[in-house]
Amino acid sequence: MTRAVVLGGGGPVGIGWECGLAAGLAEAGIDLGGADLIVGTSAGSVVGAGLALKLDLAVTVDSVSQPLPLTVGGGAGLEEMMTVLGGALARGLEPAQLRAELGAMALATPIAAYSASIYKEGGAFPAIMRFIVMPMFLFSGTFYPVSSLPVWAHWAAWISPLWHATELARWVSLGPLHLHSGVGQIGAGMIAVHLIYLSVLTIAGLVITSWRFKVRLEK
Predict the structure, then answer these.
(1) What is the pLDDT of residue 81?
(2) DSSP letter string over the chain?
(3) How many Cβ atoms sit within 10 Å of the Cβ of residue 134?
(4) 110-115: long-range contacts at Cβ-Cβ below 8 A with a sequence spacing of 24 or more?
(5) Rg (CA), the chain
(6) Can you give the residue ranges of every domain in the chain?
(7) pLDDT, averaged in runs of 10, over the chain (219 residues)
(8) 29 to 17, 23, 34: CA distances (angstroms)
(9) 40: region left, alpha or beta (phi > 0 left; psi from -120 to 50 alpha)
(10) Which residue, 57, 117, 187, 219, has fewest beta-carbon neighbours within 10 Å?
(11) Within 13 Å of residue 210, how many CA atoms lie on the same side as its CB?
(12) pLDDT at 197
């Protein structure tokens, strides 16, 4: 081993910064993806995976730096979701990134609907992070297979949008590999279930968020 790349965290800003740096170095003839070892944590793991998969990180920079705003009105729902995903397609995102974006919307829109329904925060959002979001990462097959959990705990994965998004993204990312290893292999029926579940959560969240904000603005 002669060369290694170590990437730190930083959220969406860190992803954008690290992708921009890697893309700039690539233009200068320095390919970080050619390193013997790539290590990353949090945002760095996202960028590191992109480097290892030889993705065009300049596209990721565009997707992070140019978010699509959601309008609040009576027509929110399927149209808004298709606007966001259509914009993602226009930006040239990879299939795995598209499914990750759908998963993010399925998680964010119900929380947005809740935020639009309360007038005083009262510590609710730290509780959501501590008791919903963090356990979701532990029980969604993100770090280890759901099959390794006790049978009674499988329901925690099944109701989690992160599990559905992870299954879809892993299936797309592995490509033909899953046909040989069995890792990430899912049937057409489960693909439909994952997509429908994420879409229903997203549409419901958008509709409720739009309705609640409209009610509050009219008062």
Answers:
(1) 52
(2) ---EEEE---HHHHHHHHHHHHHHHHHTT--GGG-SEEEE-THHHHHHHHHHTT--HHHHHHHHHSPPPPP-STT-SHHHHHHHHHHHHHTT--HHHHHHHHHHHHHHHHHHHHHTT-S--TTHHHHHIIIIIHHHHHTTTSSS-GGGS-GGGHHHHHT-HHHHHHHHHHHHHHTTHHHHH-TT---HHHHHHHHHHHHHHHHHHHHHHHHHHHHHHH-
(3) 10
(4) 110/201, 110/204, 110/205, 110/208, 111/205, 112/205, 112/209, 113/204, 113/205, 113/208, 113/209, 113/212
(5) 19
(6) 1-67, 69-219
(7) 86 82 90 90 86 80 56 48 51 62 85 86 83 83 79 84 84 57 64 89 90 85
(8) 18, 10, 11
(9) beta
(10) 219
(11) 18
(12) 92
pLDDT attached to residue 85: 52
Torsion, CA 195, CA 201, CA 203, CA 207, rounded to 10? 180
